């Protein structure tokens, strides 16, 4: 394994030593020509009102007002629930992959295989719970909204 890592690093250093001088000079030329400008005109702003701070403050106010007026607390709660359930689903998938790797590397050791099977079964049960959690929580939120 050490030999493989050594040869990969040696090849990387060899390639980078040939490329670095020419690439660095080309990057510097590109940087100086495209980033540092001496002219006072802004090419992407033909209308001064489009680039003013007042315009962006107005647009930000509109977006903030839209967020406040368009969504209710139930919408925010449902959005948070979706993100949390997605994160939990991702964690269960990672744990299943980890348990499968334990089975593959256990050399058919019965104790490790049984423990990994239990982990996979528990993760599948939790996946069913995660899939059922969103409709249940949406139903509960719907009940609270309708009772107001």
Short description:
82% of the residues lie in helices and 0% in strands.
Describe this structure in words.
- The protein has helices spanning about 1-35, 55-70, 75-105, 110-145.
- The protein is an all-alpha fold and about 150 residues long.
- The longest helix has about 35 residues, at about 110-145.
Number of helices: 4
| First-to-last CA distance | 66 Å
DSSP summary, beta strand count:
0
Structural category is mainly alpha
- Strand percentage lies at under 5%
Helix content: over 70%
Query: What sort of overall outline do the alpha carbons produce when their principal axes are compared?
Result: flat
Q: How is the main sheet built?
A: none
N-to-C order of helices and strands: HHHH
Rounded average pLDDT: 76
**What Rg, in angstroms, do the CA atoms define?**
29 Å
Poorly predicted regions: none
Question: Which descriptors apply to this entry?
Answer:
148 residues; single chain; 4 helices; mainly alpha
Topology:
Blueprint: H1 2-34, H2 53-70, H3 73-105, H4 110-146
